[in-house]
Design a protein that fits this description.
Number of helices: 20
Strand content: under 5%
Shape: globular
Number of domains: 2
Largest sheet: none
Helix content: over 70%
Mean pLDDT: 85
Low-confidence stretches: 494-498
Distance between the termini: 51 Å
Length: 498
């Protein structure tokens, strides 16, 4: 008996989806890998400020915090420029390469040509602002590539899997390179020479990632793939009003923001070094364990991401988000009770307790990875829904609007963490791994590490109750978009869409 071939998503849904080749997705997301290389360099910025420009440590922290405000301002402006730009030779590649060039020149100015030259704080701030402009340009264009590459619901989650792979492995590898290769060659000190050598090597490596990303998007980087659904004779310019309408009239985007912001706040808080000290150093008694476990969790996390992509492709981003958010919430609740019932200092001394703790922790980390994959697919769905709702294709604007909220939340993370730690007595000194555990430390740590994420997941579940872009809803969206494009193609001359 002949085997019946499996239906494609296009055949099953009655929609002619746009699909990408697997290698195109893998290459396109290398833009994220390039960005992660610069992320590692920014992590060295505080050493550069002090060693290369004589900026005090306290002032250095203020500079990096204040410039985040500028980052939040420049993102929507660059997004509007990208969405309004029409070029025949590739809009994505233009802004990806242009952004890479600007941020690379800024890094070389800061780390290589201007460092230790007596240029001072004004030069540093000016060039760092230039770096932010290049970063925003490159990152927004890179994040647009996924929604443009494919609108196949079975394939879209795969984009986030590749982005996650680069987000985890690239910074881990390049951090190891800087600490194991470059640092020992300079007496295990973050000297100007060490930072220069690191920056030059990293910029060259990032170029390789960037060029491969451009190869990945080359086939779809055409004006027709960024077309609005407005009449070509109508005004289709993108403005701040479109961003305002996105925030006020796009209900799915509002719920997506609530879900993403609540989860992000919990993630940023628990990732603070002071919170890691409380959990791994004081409560469990092994500070190095947290770093080791985060590295160990990468591989199972990627496996969960792959499985989550298949689940999201079959069931839709909403179903995946709700299902796996429940799993995260339940596992976090079990871990909280576990730590309340068991003496935390006894966990590492017992094989059974250690296995139980690590297994629950790795499962929660893996489940949250699935939510991350679903989140990426959900943003792509919202871009297409906005095209259906307003007639305007706004991938850069949607990305930038989300990034603004993301940056605001990220900036609150350290403040919330330090404020919470101050409430339990650490007002003049920071917690140290050698401190003795206490009930206030236990309760506050569990609230910040598990309780806050639980609250974030509850917010996600509430927001998703009214989110209507489920699997069936997106099929209808794609059908309407396809019908309107076909109607425009019949009434407008070829290539007239803007």
């Amino acid at each position: 008996m002949a085997r019946i071939p499996k239906q494609t998503a296009s055949e099953a849904d009655g929609v002619q989806y746009r699909r990408a080749r697997t290698w195109e997705i893998a290459f396109s997301q290398m833009n994220n890998g390039s960005a992660m290389i610069f992320y590692v360099l920014v992590g060295l910025m505080s050493y550069l400020q002090n060693a290369g420009y004589g900026i005090a440590v306290a002032v250095a922290g203020v500079i990096l915090t204040v410039t985040r405000v500028f980052d939040g301002i420049v993102d929507p402006l660059i997004a509007m420029v990208i969405d309004r730009t029409t070029v025949t030779f590739g809009k994505l590649r233009l802004f990806m390469l242009g952004g890479w060039l600007i941020r690379s020149l800024a890094i070389l100015l800061l780390f290589v040509w201007g460092s230790d030259a007596g240029l001072g704080v004004v030069f540093f701030i000016a060039v760092y602002i230039v770096y932010i402009v290049g970063s925003s340009m490159n990152d927004i264009a890179g994040q647009m590539s996924g929604p443009v590459l494919t609108n196949d619901p079975r394939q879209r989650p795969t984009v986030q899997v590749w982005a996650t792979v680069y987000a985890y492995f690239v910074p881990a590898i390049f951090t190891i390179v800087s600490t194991v290769v470059f640092l020992p060659r300079h007496g295990n000190e973050f000297t100007v020479g060490m930072l220069r050598e690191t920056a030059i090597t990293y910029v060259v490596c990032s170029l390789a990632f960037q060029l491969l990303a451009c190869v990945g998007v080359s086939r779809i980087d055409k004006p027709e793939n960024f077309a609005h659904l407005a009449d070509a004779r109508a005004e289709a310019d993108v403005s701040l009003r479109d961003m305002w309408h996105l925030l006020t009239k796009n209900g799915p985007f509002q719920r997506y923001l609530i879900s993403g912001a609540s989860d992000k706040l919990a993630q940023v808080v628990k990732s603070q070094a002071v919170i890691s000290t409380l959990l791994w150093g004081i409560l469990l008694g092994n500070m190095q364990l947290g770093t080791t476990l985060s590295l160990v969790a990468i591989l199972p996390g990627i496996v969960f991401a792959i499985l989550g992509a298949r689940f999201t492709g079959r069931r839709g981003s909403k179903a995946a988000t709700v299902t796996w958010t429940w799993i995260c919430l339940i596992l976090a609740a079990i871990l909280t009770v576990f730590c309340l019932v068991v003496d935390t200092r006894a966990i590492l001394g017992s094989v059974a307790l250690a296995i139980a703790f690590f297994l629950l922790y790795l499962l929660m980390n893996g489940a949250s990875m699935v939510v991350t994959v679903a989140n990426g697919a959900m943003r792509a769905d919202i871009i297409d829904y906005e095209l259906d709702r307003s007639g305007k294709y706004l991938p850069a604007t949607v990305t930038a609007t989300y990034n603004i909220v993301d940056q605001i939340i990220s900036s609150l993370g350290s403040t919330l963490a330090l404020g919470a730690v101050a409430l339990i007595g650490f007002t003049t000194v920071m917690p140290q791994p050698t401190d003795a555990p206490s009930t206030p430390i236990l309760l506050m740590t569990l609230f910040l590490f598990f309780g806050l994420p639980i609250l974030g997941w509850v917010c996600t579940l509430i927001a998703m109750r009214g989110y209507r872009l489920d699997r069936e809803g997106m099929i209808e969206v794609q059908k309407r978009v396809a019908e309107r494009k076909a109607a425009l193609a019949e009434t407008e001359p070829a290539g007239s869409l803007s």
